[in-house]
Amino acid sequence: MHFADPKVAVAVVLRENGRVLLVRRVNEPFRGKWTLPAGFIDAGEDPRQAAERECQEETGLTVRASQVVDVIAGREHPRGADFVIVFAAAILSGDLQPGDDADRAEWFEANDLPPLAFRATASVLS
């Protein structure tokens, strides 16, 4: 039996004053729902650098990814990732503005989250 190579994504958790930064998806699946800044790792790319790149593309913020918060297995939709590596991160610079796959980027209180796109996001934020 032949299996395709797994697709690996990265996500960033930014927390500040009891709030978490989320982006609203402009693409299917789950268009209009919210998620952590995230995306796929490019071939040959370091996962930590991929997480920092994806966050910058989606939020306009330059961040430093630090420790791994979680590694979540299980594809949620046909075009999704088989594994998501979630990093904690800190903001280094930049102005918050949505970009790339996001049309909004906002801070939310941990106990008042909007509709989330992925189980992985819900799992990390619970």
Please summarize what this structure is:
The protein is of the alpha+beta class and 126 residues long. The chain has 2 helices and 7 strands, in the order E-E-E-E-H-E-E-E-H.
What does this structure look like?
With 126 residues, the protein is α+β, with helices and mostly antiparallel strands. It has a single domain, classed as Nucleoside Triphosphate Pyrophosphohydrolase (Alpha-Beta Complex), CATH 3.90.79.10. It is built from two helices and seven strands; from the N terminus they run E-E-E-E-H-E-E-E-H. Strands 1, 2, 3, 4, 5, 6 and 7 form a seven-stranded mixed sheet that branches.
Topology:
Blueprint lengths: L7 E9 L2 E7 L8 E2 L2 E3 L6 H13 L1 E13 L9 E12 L7 E8 L9 H7 L1
Parallel strand pairs: 1-6
Antiparallel strand pairs: 1-2, 1-4, 2-3, 2-7, 5-6
Kindly identify the CATH topology.
Nucleoside Triphosphate Pyrophosphohydrolase
Overall number of domains: 1
Number of strands: 7
One letter per element, helices H and strands E, the order comes to: EEEEHEEEH
Radius of gyration computed on alpha carbons: 14 Å
| N- and C-termini, Cα separation | 37 Å
Q: Which structural class best describes the helix and strand composition?
A: alpha+beta
What CATH architecture do you see?
Alpha-Beta Complex
Give the averaged pLDDT, no decimals. 93
Spans with pLDDT under 50 lasting ≥5 residues? Answer: none
What percent of residues are in strands? 35-45%
Fourth-tier CATH superfamily name = Nucleoside Triphosphate Pyrophosphohydrolase
Query: What fraction, in percent, of the residue positions are helical?
Result: 10-25%
